[in-house]
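B., you asked whether I could sanity-check this one before it goes into the benchmark set. Here's the sequence:
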Amino acid sequence: MSAPSRRPEIRRRRTRKEKIAKLQKRHAAASAESERTRLAAKLQRLGLVSPGHPLLKNV
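And here's what the prediction gave me:
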């Protein structure tokens, strides 16, 4: 696979990783339960792409 064809894939992975980190940070800092639930749902949807690797630790 050549470099030009890998560039979009690498960018997509990096953007996804940054988005997940941002949502996890916001979820940890959220004080309202409704906001925590909303952010957990977003993380759940993103986690469907990578089964077996939970994006949100269940406490």
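One thing to flag: DSSP finds two helices and no strands in the chain. Otherwise nothing jumped out at me.
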